[in-house]
Design a protein that fits this description.
The protein is mostly beta strands. Helix content is about 5%, strand content about 40%. It has one domain. A hairpin with a 2-residue loop joins strand 1 and strand 2.
């Protein structure tokens, strides 16, 4: 799939920093690829964080945080997803 602007929303904004939420059926390995968020280049700034719900509706959903590593000239790159929590062994 691809980035969908309807799935990106602002959670908080202060002092030039924005905390975002993004939800998608795409895997974390897809959304943390350089260029995935190019459609949001006019919104995302270096240092912004995205709380992400990935692979929603899939067999192995993942949640975590992405940090905008680069955003210039219409190109966005985010750091790899840092997951929340760990497997609980159930």
């Amino acid at each position: 799939m691809a980035y969908a602007s309807k799935d990106l929303s602002v959670l908080a904004y202060a002092n030039g920093f924005t905390l975002w939420h993004y939800t998608t059926a795409d895997a974390a390995t897809d959304i943390d690829t350089a260029g995935y968020f190019n459609g949001a280049a006019d919104l995302l700034r270096v240092g912004d964080m995205l709380l992400a719900n990935c692979a929603v509706g899939g067999a192995t959903p993942a949640t975590g945080v992405l940090v905008v590593a680069a955003s210039a000239n219409g190109a966005v790159d985010v750091a790899n997803l840092t997951p929340f929590g760990s497997a609980n062994g159930d």
